[in-house]
Design brief:
Pfam families: Glycos_transf_1. The protein is an alpha/beta fold and 352 residues long. The protein has 10 helices and 14 strands. An 8-stranded mixed sheet has the order 3-4-2-1-5-6-7-8. Strands 11-10-9-12-13-14 form a 6-stranded parallel sheet, with helices on both faces. Strand 12, helix 8 and strand 13 form a beta-alpha-beta unit. The longest helix is centred in the N-terminal third of the chain and has 18 residues.
Length: 352
């Protein structure tokens, strides 16, 4: 494989979905932060992104200096093969216009499948970032990555272990990083306990609500909020009503990222009851927002002065109880992973 010239290299990113414009802050925030940093680190490189399913448009657009080509698959099962053919055809055209040096696919799925086939055929460097449960739930798209030259990336030690257990695939651990310029000033706490994440089965908000129910018995004026929307909203609303927590827990719905960070800046504890995380970008955000965390052992969870890791509802109740009863010390930002470390690790894979 040829050695890359950092100045004129061409990197193509493959992802199922992406931000529909520069104003869309809620579609895969970690990926957005990462790509802005790559653009900054490689000012002269040609960067192209193929979005397989979302946004629902066929119009190519510029996103912070990256050309985004939507394939408009619209998450329709019947359009899958057509979308993959379109992706391959687009890759051929791009490669002909300017040789592709690296394909970087996100998730073990349709993108890694198309990316690996094209990379093998044209002797192109292929990097695959495993993004979530694709590390722990077997799928047929992984078979062409096993015994391949693809460079696999996972996001945390837990994630690395899951990929190894499921597929016996080794990977480089590269954590996400934050764009610290996005964060507002720290404020006095208006919210005691905050939950952030989609209202789905994995995020496990039924545990969250049960924990708040136990805490509310002692802390009568507890102020709790949940940011996010999803299929389980009605179910969770019923659980909140049944436990008499309508005046304790506020469901804020889906908010723009700037608003999420504002809420974090005025919150004391992030309670995260998710049963699975590959990484947990929300953990980085919470710590940098001066929050304390109480969570299960998921993603990059690691017990520390600011992070209480529990194995059960009871342990998380105890952790929150301890934090609520403690003196409210001045907030301090904690940064777990730096932009420089994360980006340099990826650049090493691109240039290998």
């Amino acid at each position: 494989m040829k050695k890359l010239n950092k100045n004129n290299q061409h990197i193509v990113f493959l992802t199922p979905g992406f931000a529909e414009s520069e104003e869309d802050s809620t579609t895969i925030p970690a990926l957005q932060v990462f790509l802005k940093s790559i653009r900054k680190a490689l000012p002269n490189a040609k960067l192209t992104l193929l979005a397989f399913q979302f946004p629902f448009t066929k119009k190519t657009y510029d996103w912070h200096g990256i050309e985004v080509i939507p394939l408009n698959g619209q998450n329709r099962r019947l359009k899958k093969l057509q979308t993959w053919r379109k992706a391959t055809k687009t890759l051929k055209k791009l490669h002909k216009t300017q040789n592709i040096d690296t394909i970087h696919s996100f998730w073990i799925g349709e993108c890694s499948k198309v990316g690996q086939r094209f990379a093998e055929k044209h002797s192109i460097n292929h990097v695959v970032t495993v993004m979530g449960q694709d590390a722990s739930i077997e799928n047929s798209h992984a078979k062409n990555l096993i015994h391949s030259n693809a460079k696999m990336v996972t996001l945390s030690k837990n994630h690395h272990a899951a990929l190894l257990k499921t597929y016996n695939l080794e990977s480089t651990i590269i954590p996400w990083h934050l764009d610290v310029a996005e964060f507002p000033e720290l404020q006095e706490n208006a919210i005691d306990i905050l939950g952030v994440g989609s209202l789905n089965t994995v995020k496990n908000y039924s545990d969250f609500i049960e924990i708040i129910s136990a805490l509310a018995k002692k802390h009568k004026n507890l102020n709790v909020a949940i940011i996010g929307d999803g299929a389980l909203q009605n179910e969770l609303e019923i659980q909140i009503q049944n436990l008499g927590l309508e005046n304790t827990i506020t469901l804020l719905g889906k908010l723009p990222r700037t608003e999420v960070l504002k809420k974090m800046a005025q919150s004391r504890i992030l309670l995260h009851t998710s049963s699975y995380e590959s990484f947990g970008f929300v953990f980085l955000e919470a710590l940098y927002s001066g929050m304390q965390i109480a969570s299960y052992d998921v993603g990059l969870a690691k017990a520390s002065k600011n992070w209480h890791v529990g194995e059960s509802e009871i342990e998380l109740i105890e952790a929150c109880e301890s934090l609520l009863s403690a003196q409210n010390d001045a907030k301090k930002r904690v940064e777990l992973s730096s932009e420089k470390q994360s980006i340099n690790a990826y650049l090493n894979l691109y240039h290998a």
